[in-house]
Amino acid sequence: MSITQILFWFLTVMAIGSALMVITSRNPVYSVLFLIATFFAISGHYILLNAQFLAIVNLIVYAGAIMVLFLFVIMLMNLNTETEPQKNKWLKFAGTIAGGCLLLVMVAALRDADTKTTTALMKEGDIGLVQNLGKTLFKEYVVPFEISSVLFLSAMVGAVVLGKKD
Amino acid sequence: MQTLTNRAKPVDRRPMTVLEKLYLPAIAKGMGITLKHFFKKKVTIQYPEEKRPFSPVFRGLHILNRDEEGRERCTACGLCAVACPAEAITMEAAERMEGEENLYREEKYAAKYEINMLRCIFCGLCEEACPKDAIYLSETFAPANFKREGFIYGKNDLLIPDPKKEPEQYQKALGSRVKKS
Amino acid sequence: MINLAIDLAFILEKLVLIAVIIVISLLVALYTTFGERKVAGYIQDRYGPNRAGPGGIFQPFADGIKLFMKEDVIPSSSNRFLFILGPGIAMTMAMLTSAVIPWGNEITIAGRTISLQIADINIGILYVFGVVSMGVYGIMIGGWASNNKFSLLAALRGASQMISYELAMGLSIIALLMLTGSLSLKTIVDQQSTGWWNFFYQPLGFLIFLICAFAECNRTPFDLPEAESELNQGYHQEYSSMKLGFYLFAEYVNMFISSALMSTLYFGGYDIPFVNDASMGQSIGTNWLAVLQAVSLFAKVGFFLFFFMWVRWTIPRFRYDQLMKLGWKGLIPLALFNMVITGLIVLIKENGWPF
């Protein structure tokens, strides 16, 4: 068992454990903090795959910016068990069915993944490094990349319009 | 309107120019000023090592004077207590006994003489009222204390050292002011 | 069967290096608190602390002992776990950044070449950004867990301020990265030691970075989270003893790290000015060169630390709307403009004059 494997198992347990805590903890602030821990674990996995750029961008964008905004909103709303609205029984039922459907889709999608097994690149791979990632993004995937940036722009404009409305 | 000193300046209410809106020149100017002060001579007086000279009219803690032979001058007439606007002085008189001539100058003396330094306003009226030159305000001030009782000064706190027995301390207690006069 | 294939010497070397750098940054931060009080004094025509030891040199230790001795109060209505976690995060995140800063070139001890940098990762600058953006959580968690509306408001202010200025900071860095073509801090320093310092290529970028560094460190004129006239004591209102000390200390460690970062990115890092480092290394040996380089870096860092203090005791605090206006309407467009101009120049330089 090499140190990479030890780290892998540690990060995996951490990721799944804190992901479970996100949905089970009563306090929404704890949920957000566990979500951040999950992001950290996933970033650790990226580093194990030698995808340093992805790891750090994951941290900056998700843990550093988006989660701060989540925390912002939750802290300002001051959610706790007393203010929690009574959940409809049917709503829970619908949620279960929706979750089950998602599981089915995931199973169906991942079933084929097994056939084209390629061992994950450990330490040696350099796909995740900045240079290669940049070249791939701006050569092969330049159109989807630009389209997604236009999507972001339109989302931003939409946010501004909503904010101006009062 | 007629100005009094001709030094008044009208407020400049023109909108700021682009350079002024940048604020950077103004910030640089401010930084220059603080840097100038960084190298200026400091005005601090390092207290226990360095002391500020008192003004010649400084009125500090009271002192009960003795004459040249070391006898107490106070005769407990009570004029100082009457003069005191803050009513800080209390005293009890006693008669001089036989054999105490070397201690007290007059036939009556103050057996108890107390000044409450918390009440005292250091106006110096007691000094002016005293007909016997027995009370003076010195050049020291009351030190801090933990209790209010500590600020009630009795006779042994106030009396000047005996010029015969402790001449050095007597000279020190006299201070610079007495020497001049 | 666990068979650990680890280079023990390598781990030992890194551990020692980490320990040394952490101790140095703590010491520097300790003495920055002292320096701050001294500088404040001198700027205000007084001497500052000068009683503890000769010239007040033991003052920081006296302060530290005082903080440790104070009663440690945890408010009963606070969230205990998060209340303790907050200062811990603030301190850890402040210390983590020092991992990627190159403190000097290699030294050779007993035939082993040791780089004076904990990790030369290929995304150095981004790592710094990642860690800095984590630093917000220390303030936010601490402010929220105190269960005090002033703390919460201060924490929200701090977080929004840091997020806003991170954008302009990132944009100003992008212009620099266009020139260097590398994210590794080591490479950036190496480029500067042979050529000009980046400051001469990117003066506007440096100015933006400087202003944003002030905002990121919550220093005056951007110390709104601690605006005592509006928010009492700010996010550390409920904190006492060494937990408060951690928050205060994290600020100084942050200051030290951002000074080091500014020197590294824009002022040549450990490059000794006016000297050809490589030829000097041949004449006095690489070890002495590394020492001199570290001294050179620390001189630059010292200047920036002084600058931080100098500004603090000169410029008054911004109002919150002014802060946001400066960040979003002032610095971000300026940084974008700087980025476009830099990109244009880089393009022209690479392809020749196309017109």
From TrEMBL, chain A:
<keyword id="KW-1003">Cell membrane</keyword>
<dbReference type="Pfam" id="PF00499">
    <property type="entry name" value="Oxidored_q3"/>
</dbReference>
<feature type="transmembrane region" description="Helical">
    <location>
        <begin position="6"/>
        <end position="23"/>
    </location>
</feature>
<comment type="function">
    <text>NDH-1 shuttles electrons from NADH, via FMN and iron-sulfur (Fe-S) centers, to quinones in the respiratory chain. Couples the redox reaction to proton translocation (for every two electrons transferred, four hydrogen ions are translocated across the cytoplasmic membrane), and thus conserves the redox energy in a proton gradient.</text>
</comment>
<keyword id="KW-0812">Transmembrane</keyword>
<keyword id="KW-1133">Transmembrane helix</keyword>
<keyword id="KW-0520">NAD</keyword>
<feature type="transmembrane region" description="Helical">
    <location>
        <begin position="30"/>
        <end position="49"/>
    </location>
</feature>
<dbReference type="InterPro" id="IPR042106">
    <property type="entry name" value="Nuo/plastoQ_OxRdtase_6_NuoJ"/>
</dbReference>
<comment type="similarity">
    <text>Belongs to the complex I subunit 6 family.</text>
</comment>
<feature type="transmembrane region" description="Helical">
    <location>
        <begin position="55"/>
        <end position="78"/>
    </location>
</feature>
<dbReference type="InterPro" id="IPR001457">
    <property type="entry name" value="NADH_UbQ/plastoQ_OxRdtase_su6"/>
</dbReference>
<feature type="transmembrane region" description="Helical">
    <location>
        <begin position="90"/>
        <end position="110"/>
    </location>
</feature>
<protein>
    <recommendedName>
        <fullName>NADH-quinone oxidoreductase subunit J</fullName>
        <ecNumber>7.1.1.-</ecNumber>
    </recommendedName>
</protein>
<keyword id="KW-0472">Membrane</keyword>
<feature type="transmembrane region" description="Helical">
    <location>
        <begin position="141"/>
        <end position="162"/>
    </location>
</feature>
<keyword id="KW-0874">Quinone</keyword>
UniProtKB/TrEMBL annotation, chain B:
<feature type="binding site">
    <location>
        <position position="80"/>
    </location>
    <ligand>
        <name>[4Fe-4S] cluster 1</name>
    </ligand>
</feature>
<dbReference type="Pfam" id="PF12838">
    <property type="entry name" value="Fer4_7"/>
</dbReference>
<dbReference type="InterPro" id="IPR010226">
    <property type="entry name" value="NADH_quinone_OxRdtase_chainI"/>
</dbReference>
<keyword id="KW-0479">Metal-binding</keyword>
<keyword id="KW-0472">Membrane</keyword>
<keyword id="KW-0408">Iron</keyword>
<keyword id="KW-1003">Cell membrane</keyword>
<feature type="domain" description="4Fe-4S ferredoxin-type">
    <location>
        <begin position="111"/>
        <end position="140"/>
    </location>
</feature>
<keyword id="KW-0411">Iron-sulfur</keyword>
<feature type="binding site">
    <location>
        <position position="84"/>
    </location>
    <ligand>
        <name>[4Fe-4S] cluster 2</name>
    </ligand>
</feature>
<comment type="subunit">
    <text>NDH-1 is composed of 14 different subunits. Subunits NuoA, H, J, K, L, M, N constitute the membrane sector of the complex.</text>
</comment>
<keyword id="KW-0874">Quinone</keyword>
<feature type="binding site">
    <location>
        <position position="123"/>
    </location>
    <ligand>
        <name>[4Fe-4S] cluster 2</name>
    </ligand>
</feature>
<keyword id="KW-1278">Translocase</keyword>
<comment type="similarity">
    <text>Belongs to the complex I 23 kDa subunit family.</text>
</comment>
<keyword id="KW-0520">NAD</keyword>
<feature type="domain" description="4Fe-4S ferredoxin-type">
    <location>
        <begin position="65"/>
        <end position="94"/>
    </location>
</feature>
<keyword id="KW-0830">Ubiquinone</keyword>
<keyword id="KW-0004">4Fe-4S</keyword>
<keyword id="KW-0677">Repeat</keyword>
<feature type="binding site">
    <location>
        <position position="120"/>
    </location>
    <ligand>
        <name>[4Fe-4S] cluster 2</name>
    </ligand>
</feature>
<feature type="binding site">
    <location>
        <position position="74"/>
    </location>
    <ligand>
        <name>[4Fe-4S] cluster 1</name>
    </ligand>
</feature>
